[in-house]
Amino acid sequence: MVRLEGLEPPTYCLEGSCSILLSYRRSDLDINIQRAVSASSNYAIIPRTMNIGLQTWGSEGDIRPFIALAAGLVQAGHQVALVVADNAGRDYSGFARRYGFTLHTVSNPLSAEPVEIDAVWRALISAGNPLKQLRMILKYGFDPIMEEMYTAARHLCVGKDLVVGHFFVFPLRVAAEMAGVPVATVSTVYNCIPSSAVCPSGFPDIGRWSYPLEWKIARMILNHVFLPRVNALRIREGLSPDKDVMADTWAAEKLNLIAVSKRIWQRPADWDGRHQVCGFLNLPGESNFEELPKGLEAFLASGPAPIYITFGSMMPDSLPYIRETVSLVAAAIKLVGCRAILQISWGDLSLFETDPLIFKVVRTAHSKVFPLCRAIVHHGGAGTTQSSLLAGKPSVVVAHIADQRFWGAELRRLGVTGVTLTRNSLSSIKLAREINNVLNDTAMAKRASSIGQELSREDGVSEAVRLIEKIFPQNAYTGLL
Length: 481
What we know:
This protein is an alpha/beta fold. The protein has 17 helices and 18 strands. The protein has helices at 60-75, 93-99, 114-127, 130-142, 146-157, 170-179, 211-236, 245-249, 296-301, 319-336, 366-369, 382-391, 402-413, 428-439, 442-455, 460-471, 473-476, and strands spanning 2-4, 11-13, 20-26, 31-37, 43-45, 51-58, 79-86, 102-105, 162-166, 183-187, 256-258, 275-277, 307-310, 340-343, 358-361, 376-378, 395-399, 421-422.
């Protein structure tokens, strides 16, 4: 008998002329792996490359975490294919080439005429009611490409050892079940998992006694909106219908990664084991690959640190709407009297007249520029919220749609923003007042800086990869016979 050292529990193999396969647990990595053991007792860890498919949908804040996860999985030795459906039609092929994964893009659901986009967007912002906004997002941004996403998901599952999907992308889970492929989910928010210790987002917090009833109401509303869509596809494919969207549709049975920092959110004790907080999913050294726009470096060096203003994917491809927004923001900056970098999602920036205090950009690497600013004015999207926290800067949140109010409330809970403003009632005076409040709050700036320093020590991608390999060990390693 030959003892294999370093294995738990102690493992032995028979000496002989053939190799044998042993499965064991390595305590330092806490993952199941296998070794090939030869007659001479020389052995090695033989990791097998997993073939993993990823699929996501939404804004850049929904796409970037999956690009980071794809890069991390490739770095860990796995083959990765990513399917994206970006609501602004952004091109991510450069990331695929840089990090070594394959990319498939589902068509942009909002590729309509500018007049139509403007009308839809104004209706969405003015709706105000979160439930009405959700229905509009599904009607215009998800439903038109659902079948194309499902077709892409079915192709993605072919030959895969595992698929990982954005929690919203239920077609992937259906395709995975049909193909018999294990599935994991990624949630970029943590307010869609019921807990007796947490008040549901959007409900008044009148005490813990009310949480069960409020979660019951939230469940009824979400099931009413989502289950008909989900189950129409499931029943069509001969699968049993889901009974609850939060428990069945949005969280995979074995692993649901919560892509948020543990500094921001502590996992409630009553969550079941599949829900794991892994940390923000960020691309390592992302800013190294993107140069600053021409003139920005000189602007930064020519005076006091500016504020940065971006509404991200909330700036649609509508020139009249963008002009209105730029005019409002420029008036607010003039009232405050501070310097600002204004991100405008339009190719020709000369169309927008602004004060010399404002430097206009189409886009920048947030991870590179945010740390050089005093504060970040943004829409409260998951991605920009994360970037502002990582940069250690306070925020002014102008929420456009429902989930952004949630992030505004969370940033206020952390003490790094003031009152959340809303786009449909925004004025230059209101915006200027809130910018002044944030800029004059030194305690807020210190809290934001402290949080940023803590987050800089985290590695959410590595933790996510570790959890994937731990939960799906039979897929991750093999031995040589």
